[in-house]
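[scheduler] slot 2 assigned
[scheduler] job type: sequence-to-structure, two independent chains
[scheduler] chain ordering preserved from manifest
[runner] begin chain α
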Amino acid sequence: MTSTATGPGIDPVTVEIIRNALNSAADDMNATLIRSAYTPIIYECGDCVVALLDAEHQVLGQSAGLPIFLGNLETCTRATEERFGREVWQPGDVWILNDSYLGGTHLNDVTIFGPVFVGEILVGFTASRAHWIDVGSKDPGGSMDSITIFQEGLRLGPQKLVSGGVAERAVIDTIATNVRFPYPTTGDMNAMIACIKMGEKRLQEIVGRFGLAGLEEARDEIFGQTEVLERRMIARIPDGVYAAEGVLDNDGVDLDTPVPIRLRITVSGEDIDFDVTESADQTVGPVNCGVSQAVSALRVGYKLLVSPDLPGNGGSFRSMTTQVREGSVLGAKSPAACQWYFSHLGLLIDMVARALAPALPDRVAGASHGDSMIILTAGTDPRVNREFVSLEATLGGWGAWDGSDGESALINNVNGSLKDIPIEVHETRYPWRITEYRIRPDSGGAGRWRGGNGVIRTYEAQTDLSVSLWFERSRQPAWGLFGGDDAVGPEVVINPGRPDERMVLKANGLRLKKGDVVRCAAGGGGGYGDPLERSADAVRADILDRHVTADAARRRYGIDE
């Protein structure tokens, strides 16, 4: 690795020790959170992320988690300092924030963070973000048809949860009385506090071992290495302007009107600029997000192509600039609804690859299924006579690239290491029976390299309950590249094969009876290259593995079984 040392005082071995110590500290934080959490969305699905920051709010180490939070947690500590001043940070304090226009995401994504002191010196911050299952929205767990932020739950600007080691009971009680499930919610909150305290301990240990000056010198070296490597990769991209356009099905309220997303990338030497100012104005429905979250999505798209093997840190993205228009769907202002903020962000990540495909054909992939494909259910579980709410993302297919088929049954690119809930856990916790879970054949786009397939997951209600759905990318399924075919989009059928069968992709609080069935089919990923160039042996293997049916093999590849 290229060295860019800023001084003679630190050797490469020590730099690597500190680099790995910081990343290990983040992993310890994440393990603490997941092992301590009360709700499956965190301890099974892993809908969370953690980070250690330096005193200037730059990322020192970040755990595996949701890529869409890449370089985003520091916006919370920065916003707090900008509002209250540098002197606001005091030992033993813990802060909370979930404001969609500051953190960028929906109100369910709660960030808890705190300063780290060694003696009287502020040496950094630790932060965690996790999805809370309910924050008091007009519908349990969240609403698919909200039209204002005030319908989406309790909105917290930066404020203290703990002051000098003493819990702020008034704030905690306010939270507990404004959510539907106070016991697991406060349990998850305490798990997040334990997480950042673990990070505080680990960062203090690193400073104690290497000294603050040693940590800062290693930090500068690590950041410098990252910047050099990223600039070197950008310099390989021919100068020019690259563009792509995508479209969401709708905003969840006006179901007939698509939402266009437009991206223009300008490359000049070692610098790259991402411009999304021509995207749609903020919508009535809940597909909006704050500026910081749009920047995070662009960073994910950038990192997938420029530095996928490097952990994110404060040296990342120094050669990258972004242009986001306030008042747009990617730069929402109050009181825009933001509940399902991620749909256009997954689209945007795929669009980065589509725009740069002519310049980087060996590094790009066809589009992925692209959306979280949410099924949210609520009601009363008769087995325990207690209210419940469940939320689950549905897996889908990823795009193929030069040299490999796309992955099947994988979470979307926004969510990274997020997992679906195991059937056994789902049936134990919630009054559903999952009667089918399998690969959806032929859903990936054909190509020399085949797009990954989505999945089919079928639920049978064991009691009367409500279902809310958010399935996207039917109007523009995952596209192929360089002659590869587009994928098949999502499909949701209520009571398939029955007289009351109906198809729906987005719904809020749909009432179902005991015995009703919901069949969810997620889309696949786009293909890469001409399907007629795929080898006959590969197609026949696909048929044996049930990724491709014999009929599709004839139609799309010209291969008889």
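[runner] end chain α
[runner] begin chain β
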Amino acid sequence: MTMGANVSLTDLSENVGSAIVSLGWSSPTGEGDADVSVLLLDGRGKVRSDADFYFYNNPVAADGSVQLLGKEPTGDGSEDRISFDLTAVPAEVERIVVAASRYEGARFGELDDLKVTLADAGGESLLRFVIEDAGQVSAIIFGELYRRGEEWKFRAVGQGYESGLAGLATDFGVDIEDDEAEPGTEPAQEPALGAPDAPDAPGAPDAPAQATLQAVPAPRPPAEEEAGPRKRAARPRTAKKKVTPPRPPVRSLAENESWRQARLFPVSALKNDRDRETRATSVLLSVMAQVPRFGRRLTAPFGAPSGRMETFTEVSLPHGDTPRRPDGVIRVERAGKLWTALVETKTNGNPLKSDQVQAYMDIAARRGYEAVITLSNDVALEGSPLVDVKIDRRRKHQVALWHLSWAEVAHQAQMLIRHEGVGNAARTWLLQDLLHYLQHDNSGCHGFQNMGAAWVPVRNGINDETLCQGDPRALEVVESWERLIRQVCLRLGGELGQKVLPAQRTRRGTDPGARRARLADQLCQEGRLQAELRVEGAPGLLTIGADLRTARLRTSVEIPAPEQGYPLTWAKRLVRRLAEAPADLHVETLVEGGAGGPRGTLERLRPEPADLLPKDGSTRITGFRLSLFKSMGSGRGSAESGFIRSVDDAVLRFHTSVVAHLDAPASGRAAAKERAAV
């Protein structure tokens, strides 16, 4: 049905003595919800008394004509069902309004798939009405049942109220306390509705007539026009606390704080690496199949089509005298064609084995599969494969080898849960349980967490000045640093819901191996590791540097000077922007020619922003550099005192306390300059 259309129930079914009306919606976050309400109206378009208002505190009519059945989960979200016994509706009731409302400032525009359906007594669905654009309203009339002689008809309304449930109920004559609704509040939108006495056709709007059926009744008549004082209903009036009740905080029912919530994917039974690999593969592949958007997000970069996905574990495939059992298989069907990939999984930092991957590549080539996907804590780098495999170029069918890090899996789950949504509460819950599993200490799926065996010797060699250029251990540390930076980008991007990518200041097409060799030589000479991150919406590149000589981390960002205004205004504005930044933040003025400009801590500059200006007023300011320093971890792992944890914490702290408070580039000049440099 369309807005304003109406239809006779007897034209749709012979079994309409009772009906089930369902109001449904979905939430991108999986948490949004609304409450339904029903109002029985007489010929004046008003409730006879407050007892004709049915909602969560008054769900059942004494005569059985109305019963709120509660919420039920659906494949796309949830729905509220209402049962109507139309034969028991009192004769003086001419209309039944079906509405829903949100609470605590929430709006229907935040929900998706708003719809109302009606089914007959046998459960057969008779009609459906979808509300396309709800807007910023907190209450909506979805539809109404009304009498036409001896039969009942349904009208699709879709009218919103900015004043919420209180305003809607007041307009229909429910007695609300004075502070519940503002006098004269008008509905957010008024669809054109037809007249009840005019002939109409199923599914079409009512024909115009002299008398118009008002979906929203006229304001109450003045006191002098009323026959007498209004008679109070026997039932207590609807109070404010019933119409817009405060939602109490959710209280745990556990008797002891040490109790742990039951999980769909438990980790307590994992005793060895084989158990971890088997459980992690099964958990991941099952969620990929049940949450299509998540499965698509992981497989699309590997060339998989968008289609129906099926996943399998512990599959036995023939290979010579001994069958091979890959950890999993992913199959996607699109237009009658299959895309198939074998999956090899490692957890707990265990390396991939070349012979295993080679066997799966050969099996996939013989069977016509498209890809082999390896999954481990490690991060793949361009030009530095994790496993060496031989590809027979003589084969007509070639198999692609792809790698996926557990950090990338967690990143995609976090992006969907916290920022993008999957439009379904059950699927959101599945992703949340998967993310909890991956982040548990016993799962073994923690991403890159070890700088390698060369980390400690290289640090000692730098401190002792015995590390020579060309030492292969320095190259190993540079590769580990690059893997760490890629993982830091994933974690920061998951927190922000934005793209965070490593920036390489090299020309496109440069050999990655030659670039890393050059960085390894710089590490031997200067004792420093450095990387730049491009954060969407940030005013400049975020730089992270590790000085192995002083064991200190430096996070910084350079802000270009505004194109207009005065330097003193720039300095004052910058200090105001950094009101919530740490007091030990270092601020340095960048001047033309590369010479060092004035600098100082934010604590010293707050009372005197003019100290950022060069003494020579003719020197041109090109920008400002903001930096934070902290001690770096000494261990090679991701423990509390490890180097990996310290880098993660430094980048996240710098962005949340400094970069997040800065203005994005106001013009394309800074962005163009940044692109030219990267």
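[runner] end chain β
[qc] chain β: The radius of gyration is 33 Å.
[scheduler] slot 2 released
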